[in-house]
Amino acid sequence: MKQSRARTFRVEADVDDDIVRLAREDRVSLNQLANKALRRYVEWDRAPTNRGLVSVPSLLLVKLMGELSEARAHGLGRWAGEELFLPNLQSGYPTVSLERAEKLMRMLGTYGGRFTFDHSLEGGKHVFTVGQRLGKNWSAYYAGALETIFERFLGKAIRETVTDNMCVVEFKV
Amino acid sequence: MNTGEYIYGRAFRFSSLTKSVTRTLRLDDDVDAALERMAEESGESVNAIAGKALRRLVEWDRLAEKAGLVIVSPITLGRLMDSQTLEQAKALGEGVGAEVWMPVIMSNFGEITLTSVLNSIELISRYMGRFDFHYATEGTKRVVTVRHAGGLKWSAFYLGAATQLFKEALGLDCKPILTEELASLEFDVPQRAENT
Predict the structure, then answer these.
(1) At A77, is the secondary structure helix, strand, or coil?
(2) ipTM of this model?
(3) CB spacing of B50 vs A9 below 8 angstroms
């Protein structure tokens, strides 16, 4: 069970009214609602990982990516893996590790809203699954990004599967 | 041109005008510790940080959820936009204006009025951080301007979205201005129509 402690705040009255209303609408306690909002704020909204990222309507990403070929989307993912994801992984650390890659993917999945991320060990294989709903080209994009990270920088021979709503990347332990 | 006039709506409740109340919450230990750490690093009080987080929750998070907002690298986004023509970029903006922002404004404010549209764009600007929004008035003349650093195609995109909201949804006769760093619409509105 999680440990907790009581803390008293001065909250602007209009915000207080609204959080009480939202908690009632969501049928959760005020404490649950506040913890979720505060956790998101400290873990993500003001975290270095999130610096420089922008939020856009998913519809825009569907339309923009939908006009590319699958191969080009995959290539864009490879480029993003190398130019965007890896520098983030390497920032402040001497080497790229599987654990840090997984942690970053999990954080992006939890707060980024674009995909869900899962990692399991099955029959002597690491299996990474990215689930998403923005179209097949986005699955190809994530496959390209993971391919760059796992093959090129971690030296793993991977097998990837791309479908309309997920990409699965596997490699032997 | 009077640039000082602004809109008071649901989204604009300045802290100096708002009373505060005392609220005791039970926080998870790790959340509480992270708040303390952030306060120490940033020089803000824990109360100030929590206040910002809770205001963001009530002003923005629900709206972002309704709009289906997702996080992306601006570089990836820029590369995707580069593959569009200027006309396609404008059409994308029109699509997002009509299919995303109009329903969101309707859902959040209950109506599409000049005030609700302006308040929504102000919130989008403040929390999405993609552009600066400016609204100027002179008599019955109004100018809305979106300033950004994304280049001409992004200007076309913003112009498309703004056209949907001001011209198509509000029925205003708009004169567009498009440059590398801004998209702007000029229109006349009778004084009494400001809040309708």
Answers:
(1) helix
(2) 0.82
(3) yes
